[in-house]
Amino acid sequence: MSKTFSVGGIHPDDSKFSRDYPIENFPIPKRVFISTNQHLGMPAVPVVKKGDTVKVGQLIAEPGGYVSAPIHASVSGTVSDVAPYPDFLGKKVLTVVIDTTGDQWEEGIERSPEIRHEIIATPEEIFKKISGSGIVGLGGASFPTHVKLTPLVGMKPEYLILNGAECEPYLTADYRLMIEHGQEVLIGGELMRRALGADVSGIIGIEENKPRAIELMRELTSKSLQWKVVPLRKRYPQGGEKQLIDAALGRRVASFALPISTGAIVQNVGTAYAVYEAVQKNKPLISKVLTVSSSDLSIQKNYRFRVGTPIADILSHAGAMDKDGNLSQQFAKVVNGGPMMGKPVSNLEAPVMKSTSGLLLFTEKETKRKEPGECIRCAKCFEACPMRLQPYLLYQLALAGRTQELEEHRVFDCIECGCCLYTCPAHLPLLDQIRLARNASLKNKRKK
């Protein structure tokens, strides 16, 4: 029987229109814009300057602190600028711009498609390689992977859970990775498991709307005593870290506690694939798979892209731009990520990042919000909240600017999943207001 988390959740249509479209290698872009802020924590510090020549896989920015990650060139060519450029939200971020020349790689990076099954690296070598390859969580949060694999003192991991839920509608990049590169995903998971300790058990959680992936990963783990596949009920946000631990292990992460407090560490299947490439092929994180999708069935793609590729280049190649280089008139909005937790793109010239999981296109009809009404205290948002918060109350406190009470009612436990917004019959902008108040409160805390 499929498992699921114990509190809240919703059941949106999964709209996985691109699930049967194989991964395509996106053409090498003429120019890339590689942001130094591609992970949670301190931005990386550039080690190249304008005029430098670089190869694919070459270090171009080193970590800015412990909670940070190095960044590598995704193309070969000449550094044409190191300066602030606007990201997809319009915020200026220090960026390394490279004009592409050919496709010359750093020595030692193995590019053959042959799968390297044998693991010869020690746990220490695995950890060092992950840290030096710039790998971050590819499920959305972009937390540096080497930090996550370093449990706090007194907290011993018992389980490593690979997250193959991909519960956001439309997105199919993780699904295609499991279908086309399941063996590499499992090897990457095994590398992380060994880095954590021989007594750690491995779990792969996959939602039941991906039966082919469940079947394939079960076949691959059938002879392993360390790994098992756990089918999960289709329910959003099943792929949330805390919800996945609850579903797979029946253990709930306490308020203000870290997931490791339950004995579990969660890593995305895309992260596992990146670890495989780093340790077994000596390849840093310079490329990733994303989904381009919309309700228009003619625009469905799963691309493996080079980090720093302009969003406009990808949309144009997918057929979503007109001959003048503008977004096709049928679309009114582009979302970076999934429809529930993704953010609207305000700058199509901005680049895709290590963590970019999808570019979704929506028409005006699909994005038009209804006018908000009055809250009728129906408690649907409370029932849907997977963190057992009271969104209607947090919304009112946020409007009133009552910061202390917001914190008392656990506003920092909000995972911004959007379940409250989805279920509200009054169409109140619950998440928008809660997010604004939460971010403002975080800024005030940092100032203190």
First-residue to last-residue Cα separation: 49 Å
Q: What's the number of extended β-strand segments? A: 17
Number of H- or I-type helical stretches = 13
**CATH homologous superfamily grouping of the largest domain:** NADH-ubiquinone oxidoreductase 51kDa subunit
At the first level of CATH, the class of the largest domain is Alpha Beta
* Mass-distribution shape: globular
Number of domains: 4
Helix content: 25-40%
Major β-sheet profile: 6 strands, mixed
The largest sheet has its strands arranged as: 1-14-13-17-15-16
Going by helix content, strand content and strand pairing, the class is: alpha/beta
Strand content: 15-25%
Which second-level CATH architecture of the largest domain applies?
Answer: 3-Layer(aba) Sandwich
Structure write-up:
The chain is of the alpha/beta class. It is built from 13 helices and 17 strands. It has four domains: 29-100, RNA polymerase II/Efflux pump adaptor protein, barrel-sandwich hybrid domain (OB fold (Dihydrolipoamide Acetyltransferase, E2P), Beta Barrel), CATH 2.40.50.100; 123-281, Rossmann fold, CATH 3.40.50.11540; 287-367, Ubiquitin-like (UB roll) (Roll), CATH 3.10.20.600; 380-447, no CATH class. The protein has helices at residues 123-132, 145-148, 173-196, 211-221, 241-249, 269-281, 311-318, 364-367, 380-384, 391-400, 403-408, 419-423, 430-447; strands at residues 23-25, 31-35, 45-46, 53-54, 59-62, 71-72, 77-86, 92-100, 159-164, 201-207, 227-232, 264-268, 287-294, 301-306, 333-336, 343-344, 358-362. The termini are far apart.
